[in-house]
Design brief:
single chain; 202 residues; mainly alpha; Tetracycline Repressor, domain 2; two-stranded antiparallel ribbon; 2 strands; TetR family transcriptional regulator
Length: 202
């Protein structure tokens, strides 16, 4: 069996000479990012150490050095996704100062673009895998608390919970539907959950 190669250790070049690999302090993070890309393309069932190594452009031993089992690799990648997604979600609302601003952001969140499509696919891969993995279920709960806390700043906790559930359902529908829902219908559904405007500046 081939020995695992720890990051930064010497390897033998094709001509038999020894050479030292460049120090790569972010290799673990690159492996996790590569795992997320494999998840987007092939789903949880499609992850292998070899696929991840090829996508990350690192030796196979570098992947198995950090993550001997696929379960740890999946969990690490999904934890990285939740951390990144939470920061991105927070940033979406940074300039919201009115009810109309909030509605506009939420409509775009549902309709999305390529980057948000990727994030939505990863989110639903996580939720599906979490059905049978308590460790991943803890990550889904962490994400739910984080996203609802952001929404609650604008809507209150009770409305945030209903709105969060609506958004997840609408995003899933948008991923699976062959026809895009009209923007006006998306907007109307969100406004119904928010309820009527209650004062100036809303």
């Amino acid at each position: 069996m081939q020995e695992k190669e720890a990051p930064g250790e010497q390897r033998t070049a094709g001509d038999g000479r020894r050479r030292v690999r460049r120090h790569d302090p972010r290799r673990r993070e690159r492996v996790l990012d590569a795992t997320l890309e494999v998840l987007v393309e092939d789903g949880v069932a499609g992850i292998t150490h070899r696929k991840v190594a090829a996508r990350a452009d690192v030796p196979l031993g570098s992947v198995t050095y950090h993550f001997a089992g696929l379960s740890g690799l999946r969990t690490g990648a999904f934890a990285r996704y939740v951390e990144q997604r939470s920061a991105e979600y927070e940033a979406l609302f940074a300039e919201v100062t009115s009810r109309e601003d909030l509605i506009d952001v939420l409509v775009e969140l549902v309709r999305g673009g390529p980057s948000r499509h990727r994030s939505a696919v990863l989110g639903f891969e996580l939720h599906l895998a979490a059905l049978r993995d308590p460790t991943l279920r803890a990550l889904t709960q962490e994400w739910t608390r984080s996203s609802r806390a952001v929404l609650a700043r604008f809507t209150g906790a009770e409305t945030a919970a209903r709105l969060d559930a609506l958004l997840e359902g609408m995003i899933m529908h948008a991923l699976l539907s062959t026809e895009r829902e009209p923007r006006e219908e998306t907007r109307a559904a969100i406004m119904q959950i928010l309820g009527p405007a209650t004062g100036p500046g809303t």
